[in-house]
UniProtKB/TrEMBL annotation:
Domain Aromatic amino acid beta-eliminating lyase/threonine aldolase, residue spans: 56-283
Protein name: Aromatic amino acid beta-eliminating lyase/threonine aldolase domain-containing protein
One GO CC annotation: cytosol
Keyword set includes Protein biosynthesis: no
Gene Ontology molecular function, alphabetical: L-allo-threonine aldolase activity
Gene Ontology BP annotations: glycine biosynthetic process; L-threonine catabolic process
Length: 380
């Protein structure tokens, strides 16, 4: 770990107030304390540890299927593995190795073309717009495809979601093409408030759903693939072939069970507060005379959204670190500078438990302090 990263870690851990949540400011000692403190309801901690997927793993699979309203679920060490196996299974069942997905989908951006290199699949893109595809766009795809893959929410353009009517129409258009629908629901847990629908209703639109346990629920790691029992049985066979049948997984599984029990019920509250935080951030940047800024979406669809500012990432990162060191306020975390246009950077804001303590006035005060440091760093 670099000296700069150690410095940021120390600053963020010492902060008395944190706006944007995340697990990147956690030490091994923090993780061990959390693990020893949790005891999910109905879980016998005196039972034997799991052994190649039994015991606690099976309990997590059962509870996940219940939460999503599916017949069955399979636990995976990574979401990448879960999704590759789901697509492989559906390609075999439909007889079509083409997947319709978005070019900004996790499948394309963060998985090293595994769908093609490992499973021999091919992707087509109904749209390149920074949103989910519409029904008309799905209908207009020229090539036959066996699976339509939808990331809900679509992270890269700002954790965006369609409306419920748009989503159901898109799913119906795929069905008319004789395609199955797989949902990349890494953050599906967060979507109920936007859709005004329950998790079983949302998951019920698809033939299979992948969910993450660490991206919304705060687990150490892990994911699940949920769907009909016959698909899940096949997926478990491929899980073993892909090297995902780990000897013991109880630490990650315990934290996932804890997340289902304690974090999942709070996500609607986080999502509601994210709207207040986003509005306060936008007003604060406007009031401070920042020449250009953007909070996107202006009204967040989930408890996560983007903030864009007209400064280099290294300047914003340094200013944020100094704010944590000098004022013990952790406002933003990491910044990314796409390069086009130059000098513009963005960060992802995650509103979780700590952010519930922030009022609009708190946000305004912190932004003013942050921008003062941004100017100092820029002038240095």
């Amino acid at each position: 770990m670099t000296d700069d990263r150690l410095r940021r870690l120390a600053a963020y851990r010492a902060a008395r107030r944190t706006l944007s949540g995340g697990q990147n400011a956690t030490t091994v000692a923090d993780g061990l304390r959390k693990l020893t403190d949790i005891a999910p309801e109905g879980v016998d901690l005196d039972q034997p540890v799991d052994f190649y997927g039994n015991g606690l793993v099976e309990e997590l699979e059962r509870r996940t299927a219940v939460a999503l309203g599916t017949q069955d679920a399979a636990y995976f060490p990574t979401g990448t593995m879960a999704q590759q196996i789901a697509l492989r299974c559906w390609a075999g069942r439909t007889g079509n190795t083409t997947v319709a997905s978005h070019p900004l989908h996790h499948l394309e951006v963060h998985e090293g073309d595994a769908y093609a290199a490992v499973s021999g699949l091919r992707a087509v893109h109904p749209t390149t717009e920074p949103r989910l595809p519409t029904a008309a766009e799905v209908t207009a795809v020229r090539d036959p495809f066996g699976t339509l893959m939808l990331e809900l929410p679509l992270r890269e353009p700002g954790f965006v979601l369609p409306t419920w009517d748009e989503l159901t129409a898109t799913v119906a258009a795929a069905r008319e093409r004789d395609a199955v629908v797989h949902v990349d629901g890494a953050r599906l847990w967060e979507t109920t408030e936007h859709f005004r629908a329950s998790l079983p209703e949302i998951a019920g639109l698809a033939d299979s759903v992948y969910v993450s346990f660490y991206k919304s629920l705060g687990a150490v790691s892990g994911a699940a693939l949920a769907g009909p029992t016959t698909l899940i049985e096949e997926a478990k066979a491929w899980r073993h072939r892909y090297g995902g049948q780990l000897f013991q997984q109880w630490p990650a599984v315990l934290t996932a069970l804890h997340g289902l029990e304690h974090e999942l019920p709070r996500l609607p509250e986080y999502t509601a507060h994210a709207k207040s935080v986003a509005a306060a951030l936008s007003a604060a940047f406007t009031g401070a005379g920042v020449p250009w800024h953007r909070v996107h979406p202006a009204v967040p669809h989930t408890h996560q959204f983007q903030v864009w500012l007209p400064y280099p990432a290294e300047v914003l990162l340094e200013a944020g670190t100094r704010l944590a060191e000098e004022q013990r306020i952790a406002l933003f975390r990491f910044w990314t500078e796409p390069g086009t246009p130059p000098g513009i950077s963005y960060t992802e804001v995650t509103v979780a438990a700590e952010a519930l303590k922030w009022s609009p006035a708190d946000v305004t005060e912190a932004v003013e302090e942050f921008l003062t440091l941004v100017r100092k760093v820029s002038e240095a």
